[in-house]
Please model this.
Amino acid sequence: MDNPLRILHLEDDPLDRDLVAESLTEGGFSCKMRHVDTRESFLKAIEEEEFDIILADYSLPAFDGLAALEIARKKRPEVPFIFVSGTTGEDPAIEALTSGATDYVLKQKLSRLVSALRRAVMESKNRKDVAARETALNNVLHRLQLQVRFMPLACVVWNPDYSIREWNPAAGTIFGWSEAEAFGKDIRKLIVPPEERESRSILFDQILGEDIDGRTVSVNCTKSGKNITCEWFRTHLKDESGNLAGVLSMANDITERIRLENQLQTAQRMESVGTLAGGIAHDFNNALTGIIGYAELLRMRLAGDPKALADLDEISRAAERAATLTRQLLTFARRQVLEPVNLDLRNVVNDLMRFFVKVAGEQIEVKTSLAADTPTIRADRGQIEQILMNLIVNARDAMASGGQLSVETGGVILEDDYIREHQYMKNGRYALLVVSDTGIGMDEATRGRVFEPFFTTKGPHKGTGLGLSVVFGIVKQHDGFINLYSEPGKGSSFRIYFPAIEAAPDVRIGARPEPAPGGSETILLAEDEEPIRMLAERILKEIGYTVLTARNGEEAIEVFRRHQEAISLAVLDVVMPRMSGKAVFETIRKINPLLKVIFMSGYTADAIHQSFVLPTGVPYLSKPFGPVSLARKVREVLDGK
Model:
């Protein structure tokens, strides 16, 4: 500057005076400063001299800045008045600005004083030198600044040539650019993603041409290059002659809101699918129970007719395939009852690989390597199947052009050296399940979020982002661990560790084992589906049991009260009218705490336990079942096995 800037400084702390003077000098200002610290000295100075700028502390021992501002606005209204204060918080700043101050600078952020002073000097000069139209616009912008500086919305004023005139702190927070960085820049280049600038230029032209308020939702970019979604509101600014002087645009970052809305919609869709799947499975399993049960009874009557038996074999096989599909449907919907068993991972992989080959597609080569030393684990078969399904579907999607998918099992002992590198794991013997692909792989950022719920790299209609989070949850529920190894272009490998147990796998009963022995005990059978009730009653009576039946929960309680001394076992459907099987169970256990019970159902998601896990020690018979399965389960429970 040619002439020193004449500054009146109201400040009682000598150190703060020196810091302000030093900041202005470092900022390139040549200043002539007059320091005052009382009302009398302030009044005397403002009457004796002309000043270009007034700087004032907000609070002094005997005189405060707001009183000084009131005096200055009466005696020198044209002189910019800037607070330089250590008083923090929005209230003092808002009070100062609404009282007529030009700006409010914190002593803790003294670096902003230079830009505030430069702006104040420029605006003061403009008020004196520019034409009436420019003066009117500056007044409008000044009043607007007072209103929007502390708003949570980004407030941006841009000229008809797209250059930015105003940029409030919220805009800096949302988009990452400071006020100094944004000032004078082309708004289209600053906040529009590079790939959309050409198409969005048309929108900006339309905004200038439309003399109406408007609202749009658009994707914008931040200083760091991150894309965000913003909701914009805009209005034209006009001078006194009615000509367009600029556009006020206000934006709200709604990225997180949209993400949460999408998650909610996805969760609601998944819940709807789960509810639908559970209802279908319940009714379908009841029907299959009748088909399988009566087919087995018919087999006993036609033992001497090979052709009839062959036809019955086909009926039974078709019903078993349908039962498998129903179980898989419940697995996908996460509505299955958890029944931990002693499980051989190799059997699970072998049983499902034929289905997986179809899911993977012809362009993908599928290989398995199932080690003989794979230990037994304690797990729910349906959930292990779900892990495999989710991992293989993801692997398939990662190999759109083909590749190799491999599934391996084996045994491994984790020792101290390995645990030191993977401190979230524990020593011990584990069964290892490995699913690998030769697909596109993942970078570090993706690997860091891959197990987050709803996180997905797929398109909006190609994935829910729930698959791997479900896998992670199942693994943790089984006290296991999961490690991911992946690099871009080098495929991915998921290594899952399940705690091994020292036990043989449970033997799965074959399609047509020999009938289990019956008995002479009295059994309470509660089932609301008449075909199922008649079938189970007939099976149990034919092998020697006395059967008392009930059509609903309330009737079951009545029957039990009349015959409680004779009843040795209650077989209860979980979902029944009037009173659920669980409620019946709790009622009769109060009468006879030692009574044995079997739950049976085709769908028991929220009827047995909120987390879909059977109460400890309560036997469960899953529909559909045949005569042998029912007979064996009854005999096992009565014998306490």
Observations:
- Residues 1-129 form a domain with the Rossmann fold fold (CATH 3.40.50.2300).
- The CA atoms of residues 39 and 269 lie 69 Å apart.
- The chain has a mean pLDDT of 82.
